[in-house]
């Protein structure tokens, strides 16, 4: 039954039209619904007329477009970082950062870290996030080693939980720490759209590095690294960065022009979440401030489908992992959509 939506002829937005029936779509990761926004699309077309949809040179080429530097400066400002780097995908920037810093010191992975940050096989942690933080701080403070690379996601988008990294400020100042955090599902949404960078602990002994895909809330096929200027300058010397194709200049043009669009859509999303959560939705668990609502009920997808509602339902991260059923709200949904969903639940 899931497979009937596997070969759509167009991108879903608020609804999906299939076989003469309209379904309300509560899935995906386009939290701000930015791809369906007419103003954003117009900026994409303007950018395409000026630059084309792709740029056929690497970032090491002697001929460069100014928009890449402009977009990196704007990304640093919007996401409250000192400096930023942009490349073609979130997966690429995650691998760029974790491989570049893999020799910095001992690597400590958190629970359920995204595969983009893995070095080889899946890290085995076996702890809750809170227990992992306590154990990690205790271990580092007692260790004879001096340098550590701590790697984790900013939140769990599958079993919704927003993570608090404050306790890492209790690491002894004699240690040198890099916090490498993937904020792909938080950037543009959490912390008033700024993402997690400014909320991470920092100090003379702790450096923050945030990587993120911009293809979710921001609607752009690109990846960003946020860090201080020294780290960004180091990463820009990497062969991975220099040899990779850059993001679409047309989409970066739209990113530069659309600050007010993102703000309006985020406010709409926040309003939708408040409306939905005020009714205390049955059978769902969630983290306030994040628009994903998970269920342990494996039959929910099929039951809602009969009511004309499509939610996210797939095995993740691999085909052998358990089925994940999640309701995802975005800024395109109306109060009528949400009321109908609540009635069906």
Shape: globular
**What composes the largest sheet?**
6 strands, mixed
Q: For the largest sheet, list the strands in their spatial order.
A: 1-2-13-14-12-11
Quote the beta fraction.
15-25%
User: Can you count the beta strands?
Assistant: 14
* Low-pLDDT ranges: none
Rg: 21 Å
What's the average pLDDT? 94
CATH topology of the largest domain: Aspartate Aminotransferase, domain 2
Order of helices and strands: EEHHEHEHEEEEEEHHHHEEHEEH
Multimeric state: single chain
Number of domains: 2
Distance between the termini: 20 Å
Helix content estimate: 25-40%
CATH superfamily of the largest domain: Type I PLP-dependent aspartate aminotransferase-like (Major domain)
Question: What is the CATH domain class of the largest domain?
Answer: Alpha Beta
CATH architecture identity of the largest domain? 3-Layer(aba) Sandwich
Number of distinct helices? 10
Q: How does the helix and strand content classify structurally?
A: alpha/beta
SSE order and pairing:
Layout lengths: L14 E4 L2 E6 L11 H14 L14 H13 L4 E5 L2 H11 L5 E4 L19 H14 L4 E7 L1 E2 L4 E2 L13 E7 L23 E8 L9 E5 L1 H7 L3 H5 L5 H9 L1 H20 L6 E2 L5 E4 L4 H7 L2 E7 L7 E6 L6 H10 L1
Parallel strand pairs: 2-13, 4-5, 5-8, 8-9
Antiparallel strand pairs: 1-2, 3-10, 6-7, 9-10, 11-12, 12-14, 13-14
Helix pairs in contact: 1-7, 2-7
InterPro entries: Aminotransferase_I/II_large (IPR004839), AON_synthase_class-II (IPR050087), PyrdxlP-dep_Trfase (IPR015424), PyrdxlP-dep_Trfase_major (IPR015421), PyrdxlP-dep_Trfase_small (IPR015422)
Pfam family, one: Aminotran_1_2
GO molecular function: transaminase activity
